[in-house]
Design goal:
Blueprint (H helix, E strand, L loop, with lengths): L2 H13 L6 H11 L7 E5 L5 H10 L4 E6 L10 E5 L16 E6 L9 H22 E12 L4 H9 L2 E7 L10 E9 L2 H6 L2
Parallel strand pairs: 1-2, 1-4, 2-3, 4-5
Antiparallel strand pairs: 5-7, 6-7
């Protein structure tokens, strides 16, 4: 493991976060400011909980985090709601009382097989489901931050995101290994214009 990874691992332990992956989200948010006070946020693949922990600090007492995973993080906070659900299930009716969300986050990754092509295809499948959830739950102007394994279908996924967000960026945080295939897509400025146009 590289020194930079050791640094983030020990820093997460020191600061009380469940995993070092929190610093990937923190770095992106400090640069692009898509998580703010009072927001409603969905955290897909929330376990072990470091992303939700970070978001709770940003949104304050007026915000809400809904964490979705088959394994729920052990977070005791009045502003956190954990749902033990498969992301492919129809869980959105369970959170309709929250109405619309400001941000949808996804740190989901498939169980890797060692075959990069297979892992990439499975990753894209999870990302497309995350985007579908974002489309169904985001308010106008909302944001989407999603981990993707790079590969042949990556440009197509980015193009798909561009249909729904005014700005789409490719983000490679310092917390990710330079040789890692993981990268993040950030969509900001969700718009219903494309959806309304295609439904006419």
């Amino acid at each position: 493991m590289k020194k930079v990874q050791d640094h983030y691992f020990h820093l997460a332990k020191k600061e009380g976060y469940a995993a070092r992956s929190v610093y990937k989200l923190q770095e992106a948010n400090e640069k692009y400011h898509f998580i703010k006070y009072g927001q409603h946020v969905i955290d897909l693949g929330a376990y072990p909980g470091s992303w939700s922990q970070y978001v709770l600090k940003q949104i304050g007492k007026k915000g809400i985090v809904v964490g979705i995973d088959l394994n729920l993080p052990k977070i005791r906070d009045d502003n956190f709601r954990g749902l033990k659900e498969d992301v492919y299930s129809d869980f959105l009716p369970l959170i309709q009382d929250v109405l619309l969300f400001d941000v949808v986050l996804s740190d989901m990754a498939p169980a890797t097989t060692g075959n990069k092509s297979v892992d990439h295809i499975r990753s894209i499948g999870l990302c497309e489901r995350a985007l579908e959830i974002a489309i169904l739950s985001l308010r106008e102007g909302g944001s989407f931050f999603c981990k993707v394994f790079q590969g042949g279908d990556f440009p197509g996924f980015v193009s798909l995101c561009k249909k729904y967000f005014k700005e789409v960026r490719i983000v490679k945080p310092k917390g990710s290994r330079s040789e890692s295939v993981e990268i993040f897509v950030l969509g900001q400025g969700f718009t219903m214009a494309f959806i309304e146009k295609t439904s006419e």
